[in-house]
Structure of ER membrane protein complex subunit 3:
Amino acid sequence: MAEDLVLDTAIRDWVLIPLSLVMVLIGILRYNISKLMRSDQTPDLKNLKEGQLIIRARNLRAAANFIPAKAFRSRRFYYTNEENGLLFVPKGQAQNPQAQMFSDPNMAMDMMKKNLSMIIPQTLTFAWVNFFFSGFVAAKIPFPLTQRFRGMLQNGIDLSAVDVSYVSSRSWYFLNLFGLRGLFSLILGEEN
């Protein structure tokens, strides 16, 4: 069995901590930029009513076992009646979501702004990590892993003799990218 690697503390100080700190700061900056780029739209009263109606119908379906069957059937009829039901939409009048997006160009523009505010910082950060920190064995995970994790955790290191629990700096970037959601919800709030 191969001996464990001894990781230098300078790697922790000059690779792990700066990489994690930069990822947190870029995430906060990305949130603020996307908040500035977001257009303030006043909600359409009709869409708001429809959304509330769907929530009420969903709550009725969730509570179906807790109310009498007759009461459930009468409320369901109230929502789905073909003559004047609140949720009944005739076949020809249903609007396609894609057609709805094309009718409102602001929706497409907001989607594009949101995607750009995510893609550009992540591309630049990955290029920075790949340029400055490629080839570093950055950390060791404190639990054993199988060989299937090697490609994910040792991205950029071509040593098959190294234990799978060692993480490269490029993989540390991806672990931070997908694992900082809990920290961002603490810093920025639950809905972000």
Strands lie at 137-140, 166-168. The chain has a mean pLDDT of 85. Residues 9-188 form one domain. The longest strand covers residues 137-140.
